[in-house]
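One example copied in:
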Amino acid sequence: IEDLDLQKRFIKVLRKGGKRSLVSLKQFAVPYVTEYLLRRVSVYQATDKTKPLFVSLRYNKPIQMGVRAIQHITVKYSEAFYLHQNEQPLQQVKKLSPHKFRHTFATKLAENGVPVHHIKTQLGHSSLNTTSIYLNSSMESMQKAIDETENESS
């Protein structure tokens, strides 16, 4: 929890391999994180001494939420959101995952012209080659948009 700075909108994250980095938070996320911090205390009994940001309860004590729990929550709430927004049966929809959110986020950054080194930093990549995966899908999207523009002018 000490790694979260809502005023500067940054959080320090621990990545694979024990690598630490700063991740930016969008302004719209701040009220939701603030609400979660209140629930973290009231529901999960977290105190000032509880270090992990995301916690669950085990034997009525807050513990760090595991990777599988985060994956489960991502699927659960994305499915609920989907059902609320659509009439299409859920069976026809691919399951969302934290990785898919991450991929979509990076692709959207690339599509919006964010410099590749900023995307690389935000994702915690050590190599631009890894980040280029997101640029390739962005290029496909750009080509499709160009093709659609050509069709409109015909």
About this structure: The beta strands are 4-5, 10-14, 20-24, 55-58, 61-64.
